[in-house]
From TrEMBL:
<protein>
    <recommendedName>
        <fullName>F-box associated domain-containing protein</fullName>
    </recommendedName>
</protein>
Amino acid sequence: MSWRKVDCGISRENFKFRTRPICIKGVAYWATRNVTFDGSSILAVDLADETSHHIGVPEEFKALGVLEKDNYLSIIEDGPIGQDREEVRVWVLKDLCRGG
């Protein structure tokens, strides 16, 4: 048995990982924060073809977590509930190529 390094073109200079990964249908997902433009996104790494890309999230999501719901990538806003918001928001992404 041996290990090999997979180069998916991910730079840790611009992104901070905010969650542990989840895996749905062979794709690993992390919630990330882009330190360059101070925005959230999801990093997706396809383990079959060893490629990566970022998935945008709604702009109003400042703090988020990733989860799986019925084999679909989902995000949950996990920040503090303030005066302008009294509910937890969960969004499901059903039109992702391999995720749905």
